[in-house]
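Teaching note: in complex prediction, the entire set of molecules is handled at once rather than each chain in isolation. The prompt given to students was simply: 'Predict the structure of this complex.' The entities are:
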Amino acid sequence: MCGIVGLYLKNPELDARLGRLFVPMLVEMTDRGPDSAGFAIYHDAAQPGRAKVTAFHPDPGFDWPGAAAAAERAVGQAVEARVADTHCVLESGADPAALAEALEAQDQRLQVVSVGELIEIYKEVGTPECVAKRFRLEEMTGSHIIGHTRMATESAVTTAGSHPFSTGRDLCLVHNGSLSNHNNLRAWLSAHRGIRFRTENDTEVGAAYITSRLAEGRSLHEALEDCLGALDGFYTFVAGTRDGFAVLRDPIACKPAVLAETEDYVAFASEYRALARLPGIDGARVWEPEPATVYSWGGRKHAA
Amino acid sequence: MPPEVSATNVHTLDLGAMSLRAVNAELQSRNGTGERYHYRVVNPHGAHALACGLDAALEVEIAGNTGYYCAGMNKQAHVEVKGTVGTGVAENMMSGRVHVHGNASQSAGATAHGGLLVIDGDAGARCGISLKGADIVVKGSVGHMSMFMAQAGRLVVLGDAGEALGDSLYEARIYVRGSVKSLGADCVEKEMRSEHMAELEDLLARAGCRGVSPSEFRRYGSARQLYNFKIDNLDAY
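The expected output is the structure of the full assembly:
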């Protein structure tokens, strides 16, 4: 099972309401994924020349200011830390890869979940409603957001095993389904593209594959088209980049998906009921995305 | 015949105020009574299994989009959805009529034995899978594997059909006006004879398709190589 929801605002006037619009979508998918939930949100651009690193530590009392200070010494540049429950967003002008490494070197249980100018990822064990409350999702603003509610079948119920996954700057992927060739592809991406994997999860391999294609100059749309040839298994994917949003289903299309589009937004869900409370949904174009077909939107501008 | 409707017996059921179970129980309370009621269901908000298991000459209008298995197992009732439907609309319908104004998701009309399913928009993959005698008219296009293992009944598609149409087909008949991406195993194009023109004309009329001529369609059916077909058993379908 598992539930996926995504909301890409075409009209920046709605940005202030992104969290409020999204919470009911995520909570409606509790039946499909009651054990953990997560979301990737694109907002609060880092200052020019700086990047944001989102990290989590399972201990809610973890000393984030101490970790930020230690990281500051390691990278030799100022690091600003903003704590949100078990997560922390650290912004710095330092090389984000070096910052991520400096953070993870301090504590084995500390894990970096996203890196980018706009992306922040939050995920936790618990019902979608609890997870949304812990991170005060309702108050968040932004341009687009992708969420996941998990019913674990293949690996343990842990924060690290929750979605979304990110393996590249400002890239995130959520996945409903299971990939069957992820072991080979993980080994190939490690050996030939130098990608470091943090989990045994198949979705992380999908995200890494998309990252590798983007790094070779492919657009998000093209990178997802490449997935059709490279990935074997069942998948409905929703992917986000700093200014884009895309959907792909495998050629068999067993995993559910519904898209809705108005002049103001594009919304995705595993089931229509997650979209039912969006403004203007009654006048929206509502359809089931076709199998093996990439749908993408892009070009969202962000306030500097 | 459609139920007679008068202003005195139109009932509004609000899913914003009532539970799904209460709405379905109210609709099903007419089962077997012979009463001709007209219900209007508002605020469906994508609810699953709405208006299922009806067995009365009801007129049910659903004002909005619904979730999975809408109007499943329908008998006698006329269910009209003024919106889109999720997976499995009118699955295992026995009789009556289900009319979807918008698009339908996968497996529309799956295993339906009788009645008429009309979809004004597109239907997703596996439309009419394992159909057992119902008629389906899709005014848009249908997705891949439509009519997979369909045994009896008719599918009419005014638009295009996706990959593997009619795979492992038995004695169901398929009419497509647009293109067919590919035919499934044991599905072949067949001659449009006068009896097919006549049945298609009737189906189009019942589905309210105007300005569409049966001569614009091609007929597809089983090559009868995959199952043990005996002409003596044809009446069984």
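Point out the following to students. Chain B has one domain: 7-230. Chain B touches chain A through 25 residues (CB under 8 Å).
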